[in-house]
Amino acid sequence: MLTKESIQANEPGPLGKNLKILQQTGSTNDDVKELARRGAPAGLVLIADHQSAGRGRLGRHWQTPPGVNIALSLLLDLEEIELKDAPVLALVIGLAVSEALESTAGLETGLKWPNDVLAGEGRQRKICGVLVEALQHRPDRNLQPGVIGPATRLVIGVGLNVNQERFDAELEDIATSLLIETGHRHARSTLVAALLRRIHRRLLDVKAGAVAELLAEWSNRSSTLGRMVRTPDGLIGRVVGVSRQGALLLHDEVGTTYEVLGGPLEMLEASTL
Ligand code: BTN
Question: Which residue puts its alpha carbon closest to atom 9 of ligand 1?
Fold first, then answer.
């Protein structure tokens, strides 16, 4: 059972101070947006045991069945980090998740641009997805009705498959869980605490201006670097890195470099991992 007390007993660090746990909800990202509109402070972390309408990127559904996985959303003030660093946050959070899985469960994972953490043979199956969304204005800014101010707050959503034994037929070849990869169950409270510690550490690094170093660490764990991929626009090329803005850098067959802003990527050759 995932409780505030069990998470706090595992030393989650500063992000463990303002925790809310729900037995069931639609989407924790939607809940945190609503709480933010009502004035909730930055640092709020909402975790649900079960999501009935969890969302992924590109409007996809994200499954969080009861009692087995982690669905977590964090409210962040953009004043805490520079706006120009917002696009790299999904990569940075993926890095933090990968580090937490390694230190807590001994699982090595691969990062797939822009928001996936992959595990299993050849690092081909998704174990975690990250969804970063912006809120358009703060309630205390007294904006004119109908006027949308600059995004000032972000919601960072993390969905991690922990003790899920199997997936629906359409997901079983592309999804995995910590249980499937390690052969045993894991205490979700220990994992949440480790995730919150790593996320806090990596957000501090962003605030300190260490984005280039973070992207280098992301690249070290990347399962896309060096691979031939096809983008949603049909561009085919080899992944050579990520830009300072978090865009994927591709070389096509004649060596032209492209910056790719949106996934998903189709992998065109098997991983050598
Ligand atoms: C993706 O892979 O496209 C992102 C998946 C993000 C899922 C998490 S679960 C917690 C939070 N609430 C949501 O509705 N989505 C995110």
Answer: 159
- The CB-side HSE value for 162 (13 A sphere, CA atoms) comes to 29
pLDDT tens track for 149-163: 555 789 999 999 999
Mean pLDDT of 158-170: 97
Q: CA 250 to CA 229: how far, in whole Å? A: 9
Sheet strands side by side (includes 228-230) = 257-260, 248-251, 236-242, 228-230, 266-267
Mutate to test the pocket of ligand 1, among 2, 20, 21, 29 (most ligand atoms within 8 A of CB): 29
Whole-number CA gyration radius for the chain? 18
Residue having the nearest C-alpha atom to atom 10 of ligand 1 = 71
The partner residues of 230 in beta bridges, in order of sequence, read: 236, 266
> What integer pLDDT is reported at residue 272 of this predicted model?
46
Distance of CA 180 to the CA centre of its chain: 20
Q: Which of 34, 49, 55, 74 to mutate to test the pocket of ligand 1 (most atoms within 8 A of CB)?
A: 55
- Of residues 79 and 150, more confidently modeled: 79
- Cβ(24)–Cβ(49) under 8 Å? yes
How does pLDDT run across 229-245, given as a tens digit for each residue?
999 889 999 999 999 99
Q: Tell me which residue of 25, 27, 20 sits closest to 46, measured CA to CA.
A: 20
Ligand 1 centroid–CA 209 distance in Å is: 27
Instruction: Please answer whether residues 154 and 42 qualify as being in contact, where contact means their C-beta atoms are separated by less than 8 angstroms.
Output: no
> Does residue 189 contact residue 195 with C-beta atoms inside 8 Å?
no
DSSP 8-state assignment for residue 140: G
